[in-house]
Design goal:
Layout: E1 2-3, E2 10-11, H1 27-34, H2 37-78, H3 85-108
Antiparallel strand pairs: 1-2
Helix pairs in contact: 2-3
The structure holds zinc ion (ZN) (2 copies).
Length: 134
């Protein structure tokens, strides 16, 4: 018996596709399926660490970006430019920034085990599947 590299269900060794998730195996999948459990576990740990670093970086980028936007806004107000075209440009930049952050959030802030959204940055365990996420 081996684990399906996609859904991790235990399946027979010589199948062409997974009976659980219906994924058809490629040669690379077969290589993965030959790996001993410990290597799979190490690989998963790497994945978890990388996902955590990406979430932290996204959090920092959000803080810096929001800070810079706020600073620009304050500067425009300070110099009495709050009625100028700069204000519209800043508004567009802010909307794009929020859109990109939201997209990245949906893409990166997922549990590496169950792929569901995790609504918080801290914490050691996924609130959905209870597995380690950092
Ligand atoms: Zn499968
Ligand atoms: Zn999870």
């Amino acid at each position: 018996m081996v684990n399906c590299p996609y859904c991790k269900e235990l399946i027979g060794t010589d199948l062409d596709s997974c009976p659980f998730c219906y994924h058809t195996f490629t040669d690379r999948d077969r290589e993965k399926m030959k790996e001993p459990e410990i290597e799979l576990w190490n690989r998963k740990q790497e994945e978890v660490k990388l996902a955590y670093r990406q979430r932290v970086m996204l959090f920092i980028a959000t803080a810096i970006g929001a800070g810079l936007l706020y600073l620009c806004f304050m500067l425009l107000m300070h110099f009495g430019l709050d009625d100028s075209v700069w204000m519209y440009i800043l508004a567009v930049v802010a909307v794009v920034f929020i859109a990109v952050q939201t997209y990245l959030y949906y893409k990166l802030c997922r549990c590496p085990h169950c792929d569901r959204l995790i609504y918080r940055n801290g914490g050691d365990y996924c609130k959905w599947c209870g597995k380690n996420i950092r």
